[in-house]
Amino acid sequence: MTDKTDARELTLNLDRYLRGNLRALSVVRVPTPAEEQRRALSRQREQLRWERQRLAAQGRGLCLTQGIRLRGEWWKGNCCGRARRPYPIMLKRRRPNRGPILFTS
Questions:
Q1: Where does the pLDDT of residue 16 fall: very low under 50, low under 70, confident under 90, or very high at 90 and above?
Q2: In the chain, what are the domain boundaries?
Q3: Whole-model pTM?
Q4: Could you tell me which of 36, 59, 55 has the C-alpha nearest to residue 47?
Q5: Which of 10, 13, 34, 81 has a 20 to 30 Å separation from 26 between CA atoms?
Q6: 60 burial level (CB within 10 Å; 0-12, 13-18, 19+)
């Protein structure tokens, strides 16, 4: 649609609404800045949760290619000493300047 067509359609819908057709337009309430800030915080928290899950799955997949099975929140704690296999060289190169990837047995 073009801007001209959009403007005409909005005008016709507004006219229908003002004549009593309450389904012609939907009335919405604009949130206050404080409400919008709370909603933004909630959305950011959810995005971070999904990103953490994605990265955890990526880490588990990378370790599986090396024959290492990880479970749960494998990045927490210091489990490297309990790993069944030596720390793979390939994984060390993948995490420069970040400390070791943690394993569970």
A1: very high
A2: 33-105
A3: 0.49
A4: 55
A5: 34
A6: middle
